[in-house]
Specification:
By secondary structure, the chain is mostly beta strands. It has strands spanning 5-7, 10-12, 18-23, 33-39, 46-52, 58-60, 68-73, 78-83, 92-99, 114-115, 119-123.
Length: 125
């Protein structure tokens, strides 16, 4: 199968933390990067972060830099998004996606061609 599965979303108060997981163990295609994106109600997809599949190079959107950390576990075939200091503006459905076309390491949605189904993150008091 060609499948990415997100998990770890939930409800959290401002200032709290969540860690999202992207399970790529059933993703059978060769890919160069995994990215995290989000979509808030009524808004376009927004890039969050991405990580190379062959090294530790990462890219972060300015809106999350210093608060979010992307990482990967090569043994478990999982990519994580650690989210700290959450604010209400972070509320969105979060998606992970794979780049199988060797695009640049940047969170441009169109270069990521396989997407998971998303996990809801709600930041509210």
């Amino acid at each position: 199968q060609v499948q990415l599965v997100e998990s770890g979303g939930g409800f959290v108060q401002p200032g709290g933390s969540l860690r999202l997981s992207c399970d790529a163990s059933e993703f059978t295609l060769d890919y160069s990067a995994i990215g995290w994106f989000r979509q808030a109600p009524g808004k376009e997809y927004e890039g969050v972060a991405c990580i190379s599949s062959t090294d530790n190079n990462t890219f972060y959107a300015d809106s999350v830099k210093g608060r979010f950390t992307i990482s990967r576990d090569d043994v478990k075939k999982v990519v994580f998004l650690q989210m700290n200091s959450l604010i209400p503006e972070d509320t969105a459905v979060y998606y992970c996606a794979a780049d199988t076309k060797n695009g640049p390491l940047i969170t441009i949605p169109n270069i990521f061609d396989y997407w998971g189904q998303g996990t809801q993150v709600t930041v509210s008091s």
